[in-house]
Structures are given as C-alpha cells and as structure tokens.
Amino acid sequence: MKFITVDTAASPKLERLMRSCRHHAIPLEVIGEGRPYPGHGAKIEYVIEYLSAQDPDEVVMYVDGYDVVLLANSEEIERKFREFGHPFVFSTEQNCNVNGGLFARFPVWFRYPKGKRPYRFINAGTFIGKAGYMRDLLQRLDAALAPSDQTVINQYYVHHPAELALDHDHEIFTCTAGRTGLEDEDYRVENGRLLNVVTNTFPCVLHCPGKNFIGLEKIVSKLAIAGAPYKAGVEEGRKYRKSRRMNRINARLLPDNFLFHLMLDGILSIFGVVALVAASKAAANAIM
Fold first, then answer.
1. Which residue range forms the structural domain that includes residue 53?
2. Cis omega before residue 38 (within 30°)?
3. In angstroms, rounded to a whole number, what is the distance separating the alpha carbons of residues 188 and 29?
4. Does residue 174 lie in a domain region?
5. What's the mean pLDDT in 89-101?
6. To bridge 158 with a disulfide, which of 53, 111, 198, 259 should be the other Cys (CB 3.0-4.6 Å)?
7. Is residue 260 in some structural domain?
8. For the residues 44-64, what does the mean pLDDT come to?
9. What is the average pLDDT score of the chain?
10. How far is CA 264 from CA 112, 244, 259, 267, in A?
11. 57, 82 in Cβ contact below 8 A?
12. What is the structure's pLDDT at 147?
C-alpha cells in the first residue's frame, strides 16, 4: 500500500502530516514538487500521473498535505478499505460543496443519492482505492483544468453513484467540513485513539479543511502526534468563532448545511421584502 500527497511548494506546513506518518511508520510520497498549482484540478493531474506508474491493483491513499493527519497504521487502513468491497472510496462531509452559487449547487444537492447524515457529501481531500480503477475514473472527470476538483467529483457522482463508495460512517476518514467549531462535541480521545462521537467510529485519517487549523490543532494536541502549541492570528480566531456559532445552530436544526443556508436565506429575503414594503408605506403616509 502507498500513501501520497501533493505539495508543489515544499512548504513547512507539511510537517504536521509528516509527523503523523512517522509516528505510524507510514512512508509518505510527496508528488508535484516544483510544479505549478493553478487550482485544485492540478492535484488530480499529478495524482493521475502517479497512478499511471503503479501496478493497477496497488492500493493507494491520497491525502491533502496541510490540514490532514494520519491516526492509524497502514495495516488497519488497508483492512478497512477492503471491507468496503469497492475499488474507490471517498471521504465525506456535511457540506454540499459545489462552486458557482445557488444555481450551480442546487441541482447537485437535489439529485444527490441518499446517504447517512450528517456526513452525506463527498470531500475530495482524502480518498483511497486501487490504482488502475482510480486512474481510469479520474481521467474521465477531466478535472485537470478545473478550479475545484471537489465540484467536478460531486457533479460526476450524482450521475454515476455506483462508481464510487462513500465513507458515511467515517470508518477510514473523518472530515470536519461543515462542522468547524464543533470539535469538542464531535470527538474525544479513548485509549489514545480519536473517536468520532457522531458515528461512534475510530477513523484512521483526520481532515480539517477550510483552513480550520484551530480545530485541527485542538484535536491533534490531545494525541501522541501533537507538536508545538498552535498560535492563531486574531482574524483567524474571529472567523473560527463565527463558524462555530453558525455551525452549532446548523447542527441542532438540520444536519445539512446547504438546506440550512437555503432556508436561512429565504427567511432573510422574506424579512427584507417585508421591511421594504413597510418602509414604502411609511414614506407614502409621510408624503400624504
């Protein structure tokens, strides 16, 4: 089994992931070094190149570099992958994360295959599969020039759901997207392992996307792979607290971020229209 990430800039931000790999005796291959990175589609291009050089039956795991840590050894990861009985498994999140605003996102959300909530939707930051199958499918996506690989993959999945397996129970991957700020509620450490309280599983990979380094370090600091204390900037802390407030309400009401924000925007729009009508009537009465 092989583990890869893409890092074109040789950034020190990769150290957190590397530290977790060393702890679990996992050799990580860094691909794409020194090459351009115009958008996340480039990641898919470099992964396809790597997969093309592997035995088609080789099991390969890809993880994003700066916001991911490994939580288990390769034997456990490969065993859990094979238990899926599918050659390509993606991680999942609470967001229906598709670029382009409401009109681009709604058709994907509406047609999305049913899956366990709250982790219903694909996250493209971590995945695992057999090299040959992954290469062929990723080539069909034509995502190399896309600014968002996750958008392209989600759009493909709604039309071809049988071609991918999704880790709804976070057996292999756990992802905090859509639940930033809820780390203390969603996770706890038992006997040195991270437990996802929502799914009651012990995942092998932790991913905190959206530059949620505060949440990532909050979890990592409780594990054996902890590093130096993380010092967040003022603006980073402000954004984190704002996300926490909104996601806490979201989690209590609807375990679906898209539907929650759709309803919230609808309510705000109604209030806006009512306010305009009231203001117009008040102005008309003042003139009279």
1. 2-253
2. no
3. 30
4. yes
5. 91
6. 111
7. no
8. 97
9. 91
10. 21, 16, 8, 5
11. no
12. 77
Query: What is the CATH classification number for the domain harbouring 145?
Result: 3.90.550
- Coil/strand/helix, residue 109: helix
How many domains are there within the chain? Answer: 1
* Pairwise pLDDT comparison (43 vs 260), residue with the higher score: 43
How is residue 163 annotated by DSSP? G
Residue 280: inside a domain, yes or no? no
β strands within 75-220, DSSP E: 88-93, 121-130, 165-166, 173-175, 187-190, 193-196, 205-207
Q: How far apart are CA 7 and CA 37, in angstroms?
A: 9
Q: Beta-strand (E) ranges in the chain?
A: 2-6, 28-31, 59-63, 68-70, 88-93, 121-130, 165-166, 173-175, 187-190, 193-196, 205-207
Sign, CA torsion 37/138/205/151:
positive
d(CA 99, CA 152): 9
Residue among 97, 66, 83 nearest 206 (CA): 66
CB-based contact 115:166 (threshold 8 Å):
yes
Phi, psi dihedrals of residue 8, rounded to the nearest 5°: -80, -15
Q: How far apart are CA 15 and CA 35, in angstroms?
A: 20
Residue 287 has pLDDT above 70, yes or no: no
126: left (phi over 0), alpha (psi -120 to 50) or beta: beta
Q: Which two tokens stand for residue 16?
A: 């957190």
Strand, helix or coil for residue 185:
helix
Q: Does residue 277 lie in a domain region?
A: no
